[in-house]
Amino acid sequence: MDLLAAFAAALLIGLSIAAPVGPIGLLTIQRSLEHGPRAGLATGLGAAAADAVYGALGAYGVSGLVRVLVAARVPLALFGAGFLLWMAWGLVRAPAAGRVAPAAPARNGWQYFAGTFVLTLSNPATIVSFIAIFGALAGRGALASPGLLVLGVFAGSALWWLALSSAVGRLRERFDARWRRRVDLASAGVLAGFALWQLAGLL
Fold it and tell me: What stretches pass through the bilayer (predicted)?
């Protein structure tokens, strides 16, 4: 497999992992509506960076660390569920804005990035997916350039979050305070549902 094809395959992997609707997607939509596309993009890029970390573990075959993460599935799942519930509670308690909120300051962007980075890393099932995917690519000779694959995963994931946050950000002025409040409450409910589903998986 040549380098361009390997990068394209990794980019598609990043897109396919980021695109399904989940807690990160909901947070990206909610923050893009509330604080603008930059806030949504910072949220998504945190997940993209975590995807790249897990992609690196799969591509470089860091088997010892992989075993540690898999063995720590229960505490990581508990942490992730607690973090989701905390964010859901924050959305429920947030006051409804009377007008479109100003763009989030840069420091909040870094907070959004760090929060979703940690949240994505707390899901060890992600690394299992990367191990399976990169195992398949190894059979085609793609792992001769693991760094390029990691870059492709990050680029694909980041491309999805850029498209999503930009699209939602363009629509934010069409949502009045009542509709933004509904989005907040719906996002809180779904985040809490994901948290409970993650806890139920431990049983």
Answer: 70-92, 112-137, 143-162, 183-200
